[in-house]
Design brief:
heterodimer, A: alpha/beta, Rossmann fold, 2 domains, seven-stranded mixed β-sheet, five-stranded mixed β-sheet, 11 helices, 20% strand, globular, B: five-stranded parallel β-sheet
Chain lengths: 324, 333
């Protein structure tokens, strides 16, 4: 057990996987000599050599395509998108090649695509996006997004172990801001299982990624006003842990869904639709959602701050749902 | 420069020549049959053929070693046969039967990945090139002396993914062989509107050896492909082989190809790769006409048997609809 940052936990998971299995390779832009734009892959080149830590051209479709090809002949590639936003140029490889392979009888594609995502670091429209909704609609993919260091490691190892293409979203704003205890060795956090970060009886807050922390902060403030919120960290978006969500909402009968991604067509919309279809009679209040407005991610701190859901908005919504 | 036929002959035995002919005639006869099935209404989806491409599909794939891998497209049936695909899969896939590895989820030549040697078909031309590069990357990581070949049409050269894959293969010096069938048309778009400049010359930009051969001459294709496969296996990186040919039918059987000038088709019909190889074998006294006829009859019987096998395999049960969207196998580590 060691205390490490979210970033160090990802790095530890990668190193552990590469030490355990020579079929795990890393490829991407600047991942070798430079150690990655955020230094997640720092030191891997020295430890594992250039055949397993592959610096590539700026070529996301090439990177993902190569990962797919290598996986088809027995490797477990971990491809890095330098920023999650760049994944759009690899869309065809992910949606049409990797995601359909199993269904079409083309073989398993055990690849992990690491994608540093999210706003809050002043990256502007092309270095700040939440990309999960683009892929959430696609059968054949899995999507994970850890919020704390131990999950960052355990979900990465489970993603590498999974026989399917996994998009592993790591939030840039959490890289160095989150610290926590992380177990040594090959520790797995199962895919498709949400975690209860805070127990409560008055409402269920369904969230993931960076918003987990803002929701926990808002939940503490709500508790001071006598409202006990249960906060669920989804951890995996695909497959979605509807069972855990439904179990919690059945108990609290009120729900607030919070994500950093835009509201329209987002993951929260699917959860809200599911709950209204299956738990309508258990609900004592309308399902509320908080997310970013339907605009590109802006750069200037005043705009970016207004774009991101903040603790005050979340708190206000928590109280509104609880007191409906 | 020596005659490519002479070079090829130096490397090929009589058994090899017979095998080349057998695969070519098998592709031709199987496609004849599939067109008939399509015209009879037995095939519900699109029908693509590779008439005129037999020498490329067979000659290129025949240059691969027993552990090499290829990515093929809809005109490359012969390559799949060379690499060991049972012909029954071809008919089962067109007919949407469970005998095919795609089990009715896919039509025409999208037969799925077949064991370790034939990669899954992807419709998005260009997308297969980075995947082939990745297969080759996998070989180099494991230090296995294996080669990945991709077959594709000249229309692919306009797609971005082709260039990403070719560039990646070149900078990493991967054991990749790119075999381009230049059949003059991408659907209705003629070559001059698809590709700017001579095809082989653009590969110089990647520092990649490239050559252009008569794609209707199976021995010329084989010789060029073998050269490229050997170079890749030696560790000298990727190569590109342009095989000049003509698409002898429409893009699919639904396309009457009114836009293709008749004289162009007539000219290429005189260069039919199957007939030319037959003539070559007879003229050089490799086989007599009787032997060719008997190979052809055996191939026809194989087509009959493959069709019957496919027709006997059941259509998929709708209960399978949502199965196998995800893989459960391949545990780790």
């Amino acid at each position: 057990m060691a205390v490490m940052t979210y970033l160090q936990a990802i790095a530890a998971g990668l190193r552990q996987a590469m030490q355990s299995d020579p079929s795990v390779i890393v490829l991407g832009e600047d991942v070798g000599v430079y150690g990655g734009a955020f230094k997640v892959t720092k030191g891997l080149l020295d430890e594992f050599g250039p055949s397993r830590v592959v610096d590539t051209p700026i070529s996301e479709a090439g990177i993902v395509g190569a990962a797919i090809g290598a996986s088809l002949v027995g490797l477990r590639p971990v491809a890095e998108m330098q920023f999650a936003d760049f994944i759009a140029t690899a869309f065809n490889q992910i949606i049409n090649v990797a995601a359909t392979s199993a269904y079409r009888g083309g073989g398993c594609v055990p690849i992990v695509i690491r994608a540093p995502c999210g706003a809050g670091t002043h990256g502007g429209p092309f270095h700040s996006q939440s990309i999960e909704a683009f892929f959430f609609h696609t059968p054949g993919l899995k999507i994970v997004i850890p919020a704390i260091p131990s999950d960052a490691k355990g979900l990465l190892l489970s993603s590498i172990a999974d026989p399917n293409p996994v998009i592993y979203l790591e939030h840039k704003a959490l890289y160095r801001s989150q610290q926590g205890e992380v177990e040594d060795g090959l520790t797995f956090v199962p895919l498709g299982k949400a975690a209860v970060r805070r127990s409560g009886t008055d409402l269920t807050v369904v969230t993931y990624g960076m918003m987990v922390h803002r929701c926990l902060e808002a939940a503490d403030a709500a508790a001071a006003q006598g409202v006990q919120a249960e906060v669920l960290d989804l951890r995996t978006l695909l497959p979605l842990d509807l069972e855990t969500i439904a179990a919690s909402v059945s108990r609290t009968s009120r729900v607030l869904i919070v994500h950093e991604d835009r509201l329209r067509g987002g993951v929260g919309a699917e959860i809200a639709a599911y709950l209204s279809e299956h738990l309508f009679t258990s609900l004592d209040a309308p399902i509320l959602r908080i997310g970013a407005p339907d605009i590109p991610v802006p750069y200037a701190p005043a705009l970016e701050g207004a774009y991101l859901p903040d603790v005050a908005r979340i708190l206000e919504a928590m109280l509104r749902v609880a007191r409906w | 420069m020596a005659d490519p036929l002479v070079i090829a002959h130096a490397q090929l035995t009589t058994q090899d020549l017979e095998a080349l002919y057998r695969y070519m005639i098998l592709q031709r006869l199987a496609e004849d049959r599939v067109v008939k099935l399509y015209q009879s209404g037995a095939i519900v989806g699109a029908c693509f053929t590779g008439y005129g491409h037999e020498a490329i599909a067979v000659g290129a794939a025949y240059a691969l070693g027993p552990d090499d891998v290829a990515s093929t497209l809809h005109r490359d049936l012969g390559a799949r046969l060379v690499l060991g695909m049972p012909l029954g899969y071809y008919f089962a896939n067109f007919l949407g039967r469970t005998g095919s590895p795609s089990r009715g989820r896919e039509g025409n030549l999208h037969i799925g990945g077949l064991g370790p040697r034939i990669l899954l078909h992807t419709d998005f031309i260009g997308a297969t090139i980075p995947v082939a590069a990745g297969v080759a990357l996998g070989f180099t990581v494991r230090r296995e002396p294996r080669v990945a070949m991709a077959l594709f049409g000249e229309g692919t050269l306009a797609s971005g993914e082709f260039h990403e894959g070719a560039n990646l293969a070149a900078v990493l010096r991967l054991p990749v062989v790119l075999v381009c069938w230049n059949n003059q048309f991408a659907y209705s778009t003629p070559l001059a509107r698809e590709v700017a400049g001579p095809i082989v010359e653009r590969m110089a930009g990647y520092g990649m050896p490239a050559c252009s051969v008569d794609g209707n001459d199976v021995l010329a294709v084989y010789a060029a492909a073998k050269d490229a496969v050997d170079r890749a296996r030696r560790g000298d990186g990727p190569s590109f082989v342009e095989c000049r040919t003509m698409r002898m039918r429409g893009h699919s059987e639904a396309d009457d190809a009114f836009y293709v000038p008749k004289p162009l088709l007539d000219e290429w019909r005189r260069r039919d790769p199957v007939e030319r190889f037959e003539q070559h074998l007879v003229e050089r006294h490799v086989f007599g006409a009787d032997r060719l006829r008997s190979i052809r009859e055996t191939a026809l019987a194989d087509v009959d048997a493959a069709q019957a096998w496919a027709e006997a395999s059941p259509p998929p049960d709708p209960a399978e609809l949502s199965e196998r969207v995800y893989c459960e196998e391949r545990p780790w580590p």
